[in-house]
Amino acid sequence: MIFRYILSCILLHCLTPCFATTHPVSDLSRIDWNIVAAGDTLLLTEAQYDRPLFIRGSGLPGRPVVVRPAGESETRISVGTAFQHAMVIEDGISDLLFQNIVFEGGAAFEKKDATVHLAGKANRVRFENCTAMSGAANGFFGEKSGGNNLELIGCTARYNARRGVVAPGRTSTGFLAEDCAFEFNEGDGLLVNSSGGRVIRCRFSKNGYGANGQRISGGAPIHGIYVYPHKGGGENWLIQDCIMQENRGSGIRLAGKNNHFVQNTVFGSPTFVYVPNLEGGSTGNVIAKNRFYDISTLNELRPRPDKEQNFGPGIQVEGSVDLRIEDNDIVGAGISIAGQSPTEDIDSVNSARVSIRRNRIEMVLDDRFVDLQKGQDTNFISSDNVFVGKGEASDLTWAHEAIRVDLATWKAKVRDTSSIFLGANEPSTLVSVRLRAVGVNDSVTYRIERVRPPSADGDAAPEAFTDRVAGALVRRTYRFAGEVPVDQIRVWFINDSIDRDLNVDYLEVNGIRYETETPTTYSTGTWSDSDGCAPGYKERSTLHCPGYFQFVARSSPLTRVGVTHDPSDALRGLLVYPNPSDGAVIVQLPTTWAGNTPATLRVLDGTGREVHRQTSLQPGAKVDLDLKLRPGLYLIDVYRAGVRLGIGKYIVH
């Protein structure tokens, strides 16, 4: 009996997929669903179909029914408005995989009509490289009765007369959109009422503009993503590594209830993130590590459009509790903290326990950095922010209780002792570093130091900020007087013991980022098996010993440049001339080096990005470089057989 049971399990779970059947389909209305089993594939043999596809058969978990073109090219199901939908997945049908199909058209008899319609309880449905477009209603639409684990991978929803995608309803979980584009829909790019969803590396562009690219006037604001909390849904969403560009309303309307994370996303929409409290439960949200750009700033500071276009603050908060706004770069728009007005369902709600930390907010128009409206300052926290204005500190200040105040008054009201105000006319340099302690439960000490070049009076005393950091990655910003080039900045690790290290992710100088793990970063405290913590270009991000990172290392002031930190370097005779130059230089390699392996030469810009590469270079080669580069500092990296022979720099003026 036991043997028969084991054998039946093997046959069911292992052998059955080997006998999965392929069904060629030339007529969508003639599919015999009685013979389609889990693991089978429907091959669409025609390049285009003009009738809708009705899905009436399910797969099993791990063995979906697959629908894809017979060839390498995509298949198009285009129905115009002759039919209500291009495809319908009927109620209760689950475990499906669609690949490389364009669904086009569909009529608009009801609000829930869509080019691709998922009826209720459709679970584990995945679309890969599919498009839903030009529908008279929505692109993809999931019923309110829901279904779990709808996945869109590499898909597009565009030119639809309503929304691009309406995810399944409030009882659903597990929605995923990854590497997708939602654009030129007349309604929201993505509307969600479910919980536990993820939106990763997606683009939301020009929603509210329509297929002809013209902005639609009037009506409600249109959002890239609208997280909607109707009757208890819309919780626990992660929106990460996305792009929000010029949607007619917010980039994201984060109206869902609890615990949403928006991070590493670039915004170019009018009001970037709008956090209202529609049902009295907007708590525990995080907006972190994003980049916000007001499009009026990006388009050469053209005058702001009229208010109807909804150009508002970068982040607009209404009645949110336990909200964290951290480590963001916001250019051309500020932060508004307000209460939520009463509705039929809830009384008025004040914002409370809002934390604004380590943000960089740059204003170029006469507006407010932080508009903290009356009654919203309960346990409000502001710290370690950098506020950049258009003039002197007294010219552009902040709002509190609808009254503009100077920096000292602001700091006194909100107990902010660490934020920096920088007028745009004040010569100074902002240095940000992202780092963490490694191998300890408490914190370690580090120092951000400016090292001035030698002068006739000897070395100037360094300017430095000493601080501590614990085990979580944080971004800290410091202000140095005057203009400071990146090669004068060092990040020091101070205290050391066994298994006690400092990890440095990157350095930013006035908004330009320098990654640590690049060939241009010099270290005096990074361990390697070959030479311990000896100085060198280690291309690693951790200081294991007391020492520092210098992100564009200074070389000799002579035109004969090499790795000056290592006097035994084999390329002491490397010649780069003229230096500085107008763009054209000659690199003379030495006449000999150990071994016969040809060398490779790379040219890197100041951020470590490779701009030129030349291979198969022999000893004594003379390399003419005329790369039409922009003015700035460039580095030459020469190596062979995986071993760096030398690195130097030249200046284009």
Strand content: 35-45%
pLDDT < 50 runs, ≥5 residues = 9-17, 295-311, 391-403, 455-459, 553-573
Compute the gyration radius: what is it? Answer: 30 Å
Query: Termini distance?
Result: 85 Å
Helix content: under 10%
Largest beta-sheet details? 14 strands, parallel
Compact summary:
By secondary structure, the chain is mainly beta.
Structure description:
By secondary structure, the protein is mostly beta strands. Helices cover 4% and strands 38% of the residues. The protein is built from three helices and 59 strands. β48 (501-509) and β49 form a beta hairpin. It is globular.
Task: Give me the secondary-structure topology.
Blueprint: H1 2-15, E1 22-25, E2 41-44, E3 48-49, E4 53-55, E5 65-69, E6 75-78, E7 87-89, E8 96-99, E9 101-104, E10 114-118, E11 125-128, E12 131-133, E13 138-142, E14 150-153, E15 156-158, E16 165-166, E17 176-178, E18 181-183, E19 190-192, E20 198-200, E21 203-205, E22 225-227, E23 238-240, E24 243-245, E25 250-254, E26 261-263, E27 266-268, E28 271-275, E29 286-288, E30 291-293, H2 295-298, E31 315-318, E32 324-326, E33 329-331, E34 335-338, E35 355-357, E36 360-362, E37 370-372, E38 381-383, E39 386-389, E40 398-400, E41 403-405, H3 407-414, E42 420-423, E43 428-438, E44 444-450, E45 463-469, E46 474-481, E47 489-493, E48 501-509, E49 512-515, E50 522-523, E51 542-543, E52 547-550, E53 575-577, E54 584-588, E55 599-604, E56 610-617, E57 622-626, E58 632-640, E59 643-652
